[in-house]
Amino acid sequence: HSGSTWKTTVDARVPVRLTIGATLPRDADVTDVRLDGKSVDKYATRLTNRGLEVTVVAAPGAAHTVTVKAG
Question: Which of 8, 66, 7 minimizes the C-alpha distance to 42?
Answer without folding.
Answer: 66
